[in-house]
């Protein structure tokens, strides 16, 4: 063998840089299912099943393109259980001239790979991951010398660079951002779009059996399993989003409804992050839908901002700030993650909805992640590293490069404001405005303190009071702190007492 090309579980595209530079008649592909990757956190069962099935289907796709693929299954005899050990075993078997890999998505894996040349005595070529619009070097250059990093500035540059939604040198429609139109609550609707579902084929069925046998202790329910596991299925899923939901994506982007797990979201992040979908193609198709008059500007701009803006931005931050980033804890939060994050058993309706659908689907949409599970952990002062581990484990789309900045930075403010200019937090008000959860909740969203009051209300003020020394200087919190001051001692005391009582229930493991 000339080159051995290692393709990781989230690199499932023939357009991968390592495959592009290779030749099917001279080189060989290695793909490995390994316990280390399946268990470095106890991933949701659906996430493991999705990746193993998608990997197996991708190996077949490559074989169809003429590649020779050495595919090691998790229960193959001799499987040594880690990337490093499996690469080593393959090198013994095949004695390749070089090992070629497209850079991995996690620092942990990259660090290990960098030692392989030496430890495994093999030449290693690490190639840039060209699936992203912005390389890590380019992001570094953009960030270099800036006093403050803000997604919006990065996004504008990316719009100009790609020409997406540009009208000459100007943004389409005259504005860069139409978010002001994207904050409407949704109503229950008989014609709510649904993500495209796929029945498991023989390969998926075998994987489902294996996951149930090998990973019974992992988070989440495995079946029903309906994810796309091939490129063509994933494309079908995205096309059905384009037809059925994109037009309302913007307007209801921040809405939440009981029992409606997907609303107008595209539900493709797991496919995109694993390589089954391509970010450039998605953005072009969405732009085309606008040009054809099939979706309004607020929807397509909103969508493109998520993929071209946020997704690329958080990746840039990750590689800029790792490895120290994962340790950050700007607010010194130290509480343990409450038990109900694992079980969904809580009388707080918003949280039970978000966690239960996470258990069943390995999915929750952005506002649930940010303003329900994230907001609660932030207000309750949960240690950011525990929150990070939970998110990495429970969502089918979670890889550290995208999960960590979203959780630690955007949601928990643990980087002290690098990613977000102020903490994303709210009392029950906001959740009540954007959802229909509160109507059927044990707690009263209008009640501020005392038994039966929505816990978010007291926790909100307690959070501000508790963190005043760190947060008071933040201009965007001026108004909140002014309100807190005006409240006067008695009201302040009532809030803090209510919060203390609630946090005590959490700490003593009592039902909330
Ligand atoms: P849609 O709402 O339809 O959005 C379209 C696409 O835009 C998504 O598929 C995704 O690729 C991209 N996108 C949107 N928002 C973001 C964002 N903030 N960062 C990066 N990409 C974004 N996304 C992940 O892919 N993996 C994660 O592990 C992850 N963890 C998150 C944790 C927290 C606390 C928060 C607040 C957000 C997280 N996100 C994560 C971002 C976002 O919530 C998901 O991408 C989105 O919910 C996926 O569902 P969807 O495909 O229906 O997205
Ligand atoms: C998430 C995951 C899991 C569960 N299993 C595997 C695996 O067995 N083999 C593999 O190649 N990749 C897997 N992955 C994805 C990797 O964790 C991912 O490629 C690295 O974290 C780098 O992003
Ligand atoms: Fe959540 Fe409070 Fe509304 Fe209950 S009342 S659903 S706890 S925001």
What do you see in this structure?
- This protein has 24 helices and seven strands.
- α14 (297-321) crosses α19 (400-411) and α21 (455-466) packs across α24.
- α1 links the parallel β1 (3-6) and β2.
- It is mainly α and 512 residues long.
- It is globular and about 75 Å long.
- The chain has a five-stranded parallel sheet with strand order 3-2-1-4-5, with helices on both faces. It has a two-stranded antiparallel ribbon with strand order 6-7.
- It folds into three domains: 3-127, HUPs (Rossmann fold, 3-Layer(aba) Sandwich); 137-197 and 230-321, Serine Threonine Protein Phosphatase 5, Tetratricopeptide repeat; 340-507, DNA Cyclobutane Dipyrimidine Photolyase, subunit A, domain 3.
- Iron/sulfur cluster is lined by residues 348-350, 428, 431-432, 437-438, 441, 443, 445, 454-456.
- It comes from Roseibium denhamense.
- This is Deoxyribodipyrimidine photolyase-related protein.
- Pfam families: DPRP.
- InterPro entries: Crypto/Photolyase_FAD-like_sf, PhrB-like, Rossmann-like_a/b/a_fold, UV-DNA_repair_photolyase.
């Amino acid at each position: 063998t000339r080159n051995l090309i290692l393709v990781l579980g989230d690199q499932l595209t023939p357009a991968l840089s390592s495959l592009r530079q290779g030749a099917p008649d001279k080189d060989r592909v290695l793909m490995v299912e390994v316990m280390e990757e399946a268990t470095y956190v106890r991933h949701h069962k659906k996430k493991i099943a999705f990746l193993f099935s998608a990997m197996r289907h991708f190996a077949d796709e490559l074989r169809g393109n003429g590649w020779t693929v050495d595919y090691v299954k998790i229960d193959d005899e001799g499987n040594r259980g880690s990337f490093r050990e499996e690469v080593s075993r393959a090198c013994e078997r095949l004695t390749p001239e070089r090992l070629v890999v497209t850079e991995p998505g996690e620092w942990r894996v990259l660090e290990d790979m960098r030692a392989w040349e030496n430890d495994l005595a093999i030449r290693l070529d690490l190639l840039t991951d060209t699936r992203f619009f912005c390389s890590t070097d380019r992001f570094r250059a953009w960030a270099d010398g800036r006093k403050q990093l803000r997604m919006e500035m990065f996004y504008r540059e990316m719009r100009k660079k790609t020409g997406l939604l540009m009208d000459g040198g100007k943004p389409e429609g005259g504005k860069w951002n139409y978010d002001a139109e994207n904050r409407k609550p949704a109503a229950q609707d008989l014609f709510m779009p649904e993500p495209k579902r796929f029945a498991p084929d023989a390969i998926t069925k075998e994987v489902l059996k294996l996951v149930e046998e090998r990973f019974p202790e992992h988070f989440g329910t495995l079946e029903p399993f309906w994810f796309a596991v091939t490129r063509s299925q994933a494309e079908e899923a995205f096309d059905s989003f384009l037809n059925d939901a994109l037009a309302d994506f913007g307007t209801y982007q921040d809405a939440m409804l009981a029992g409606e797990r997907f609303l107008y979201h595209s539900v493709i992040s797991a496919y995109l992050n694993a390589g089954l979908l391509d970010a450039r193609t998605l953005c072009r198709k969405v732009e085309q839908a606008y040009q054809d008059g099939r979706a309004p500007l607020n929807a397509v701009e909103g969508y493109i901002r998520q993929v071209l803006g946020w997704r690329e931005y958080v990746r840039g931050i990750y590689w800029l700030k790792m490895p120290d980033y994962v340790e950050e804890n700007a607010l010194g939060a130290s509480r343990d993650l409450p038990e109900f994050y694992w079980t969904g058993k809580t009388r707080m309706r918003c949280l039970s909805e978000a966690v239960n659908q996470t258990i069943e689907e390995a999915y929750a949409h952005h506002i649930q992640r940010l303003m329900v599970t994230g907001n609660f952990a932030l207000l309750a002062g949960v240690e950011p590293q525990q929150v990070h581990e939970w998110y990495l484990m429970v969502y089918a789309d979670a890889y550290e490069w995208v999960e960590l900045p979203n959780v630690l930075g955007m949601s928990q403010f643990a980087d002290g404001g690098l990613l977000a200019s102020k903490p994303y937090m709210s009392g029950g008000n906001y959740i009540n405005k954007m959802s229909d959860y509160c109507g059927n909740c044990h707690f009263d969203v209008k009640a501020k303190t005392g038994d039966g009051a929505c816990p978010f209300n007291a926790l909100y003020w307690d959070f501000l009071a508790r963190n005043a020394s760190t947060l008071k200087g933040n201009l965007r919190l001026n108004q909140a702190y002014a309100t807190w001051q005006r409240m006067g001692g008695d009201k302040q005391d009532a809030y803090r007492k209510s919060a203390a009582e609630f946090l005590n229930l959490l700490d003593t493991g009592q039902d909330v």
